[in-house]
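Contributing: when you submit paired examples, paste them exactly as shown. First protein:
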Amino acid sequence: MEGIIELALVRQEQQQLARAAKSTAVVAAAPAAAATSLSPRRGEKSGEAEAEDEEGKDGEEEEEEDEDEDEELPPLGANVSIFDDKVFDTVEECVQYMKTRFGFYVPDTEYLQDLEGFLCYLGEKVKLGGVCLYCQKQLRPHRPCQAHMVSKSHCKVRYEEDVDLDEYEDFYDFTASYEDMPLDENGDPVSATASLSAIGELVLPDGRVAGHRDFRVYYKQYFPSAREEHPGVLAQQREELARLGIMLDGSQKTYDRQDIVAMPDTQVMTLLVKYHKEVRRNNMVQQRAKQHLDFVEKRKENRNRAQQQLGQVRKNEVHNRDYHSRLV
């Protein structure tokens, strides 16, 4: 039995060496064949040389496709560093290493429910999707994306409340943060100490109003009296507001021209600023949603590719086992 197995292994090694020698001979003979195939006329080749070139190109293309198919997948997992592929024994060691080496930290850890899933998602986003975690720039997956994040100090998670939290809501649970707060009819927490006005200002319980920081530029401005105002500019702003038809607090009431004419100039300006800010935010949300969908499709393709590679490995194992069994 042992002698038969050794004989089979020797035969396999001989076949592999023969294939390697044959491929080396073909590569070495290619330049000589190309040199001898030139016709007497300068720059022209014979029909046989052209056919050989076409066959060589087809072979190179097939080899490139085989190399792409055999390309190894990047290391993934919760215990693998997102920025340099270093593997650790535990997830805690991996998080501590990324925090010390790259300044990476996990936001709102007290509300995070699935740390391993969160780290796996970020790793796949960088190594498979090629998306920077901070600037959301689309790059080449794995090494180029990692190099960009390290060089630009983008080794951190973009965490804006109205833009990025929807992407990570599957891993967080914020119900514990407002358990003791009263809820409105929609189930949203209601503050018992302060409220927001129609333009985003904070109204305190004693009646004082704290302005929003987005409007601090306008708070510092000096607004002239009605006689010193420029009628053309004010009329243009009110015309734009009437054309947009902005609604406040989600109400169904649309302000007509009489209401807009009766508004103070400061309210007209704040409404226009609020409208343009909402338009920019919606555009950003749509862009992030599109990137997220593209990334999900890439994750599916990668999983199918990994399953195909695993099936090919198992098929080869079964083939080798059957071959040895036939020899026995």
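Second protein:
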Amino acid sequence: MGKQSSHQKIVFSDEYFMRIALQEAIKAYEAKEVPVGAVVVSNNRILAKAHNQVERLKDATAHAEMLALSAAFNHIGGKYLPDCTLYVTLEPCLMCANATFWAKLSRIVFAASDMRLGYRTFGASTLHPKTKVDTGILEEESQKILQSFFAKLRE
């Protein structure tokens, strides 16, 4: 057996980062917020992670994606995130999708689709032309957390 180089780069999977976003969604759930979590990643490093805090902050714009993007801008000290991926447990709304446009994100990965309020519902091309999108990573887990949250609200 050969000795492993200490410079070997470990590549984490989309599932790995989405699991961290799901942990954020659970934090939101426990805080009685709509359970959505987001993580911003660059070169296999987490720059920021957040969950919805609309109720806590009394701010309709305090979505997980918006908070994670703001923290990532702060972390890198710039207004663009061209080499970053946003992992989010629910399809971004129109506001969050537009924020990713201005951030010039290279990629968005989301778990569950939002047929009612997701950005794709509006048919507008709200993402930056260079942004790639992948969907369905841990979709079932994300949907279960959301369904449980809304079922509890109706009790």
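If you have annotations for the second protein, write them as plain sentences, like these:
The chain has a mean pLDDT of 92.
The first helix runs from residue 14 to 30.
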